[in-house]
């Protein structure tokens, strides 16, 4: 009987290979965890990729595990399509197509074919967003300025965004924004508070803006009754300026009467003159975003924002950050802009214009995130049924010509659902100084009549094609 002895020379390298393999797997899990993706989600996709690439880790590890991340998102989309009853492709086929696309755009290789992609209109831009033959990914667009990393994931080859990330608003030039303790009276702050103001039996002075009760719960969410009142304002909750800065902006010599502004509820947060700590439950917006956010590419709306985690109703997402401009500065900036220059839709700080007899130009302000901004500049518009709402927040100054714009969830939001907010655009106002874009929201409540007419025309034409009344061989898609 012949006995076979175990070859110790071959067993040692095998153990070493297994150890290296384990380390590579752990690094892949860690990289995906930074994007907010759990190990349970990564494991089956990673296994498929290793089988597809015959264990070649280089193809998976390149460009900070981009292939793995893309495959996970494709897998998530496929599962969603199956749940909705549609036919999805095999996971390996999807990944193989994605791999072919990545090979074509490597910097150190000759491209097989550079795709020519049409320009599309972005919801968060007034100009055309162009496609790029290269994929642009960034593991943290904040450059370390926020407490969390916010990755940018390009899945279709969009033109990379050109802006500088800033975590706080900054005055462009003429805007009158002055912070000082002298401007905050003792009645507008809680000097004697300690610890957490929300734990007090009697709410402190900082609750005055919200009717003597704080806007937040102990879990950091908006109180439901406060949020519901913000979501569904009464029809008569509008105010009218005696001298409307917006109408003066249109025609300074002979301005028309004010067309009205929505009367919004303010949140007042504690600030530096208050005695409470930074962990006080009434300091939510000023601590910055804490939920896991991603900027991602879309086929028809340019860049967009989503969260990789479940968000309950009333969750704080982020504030809208940009340059603080006067109306005049905004008008001059728009006039200097080239026809096809990309710029975001500016936000007017008009929530308290009605309380003033007449605002000076340096007090009628807006926020523009075109050149300097934060993640909110990528949040797309959706008419009426958006899942976010913007709420004015007073922090540094009691004077409401300047305040912060904070976004909160209007309902529970599932992971990877796109985040949207209603810009409040009147698409019929052709004289508005801020020109409206062609809406791509696809909401059944879309206010852009031009867009509705265009979709209706395409639908009608599609029905004629289906019935055989027009030429064959033409394919029309529903535009979203």
Characteristic terms for this protein:
480 residues; alpha/beta; 5-stranded mixed beta sheet
Describe the protein's architecture and organization.
The strands form 6 sheets. This protein has a 5-stranded mixed beta sheet, with no helix packed on it. With 480 residues, it is of the alpha/beta class. β1 (120-121) and β2 form a beta hairpin. It is built from 8 helices and 19 strands. The chain has helices spanning 8-33, 39-52, 57-83, 91-104, 224-231, 245-250, 327-336, 449-466; strands spanning 120-121, 128-129, 152-153, 164-165, 170-171, 238-239, 261-262, 267-268, 293-297, 303-307, 316-319, 323-326, 347-348, 365-368, 372-373, 380-381, 388-394, 404-409, 418-421.
What's this, in brief?
The chain has 480 residues and is an alpha/beta fold. The chain has helices at 8-33, 39-52, 57-83, 91-104, 224-231, 245-250, 327-336, 449-466; strands at 120-121, 128-129, 152-153, 164-165, 170-171, 238-239, 261-262, 267-268, 293-297, 303-307, 316-319, 323-326, 347-348, 365-368, 372-373, 380-381, 388-394, 404-409, 418-421.
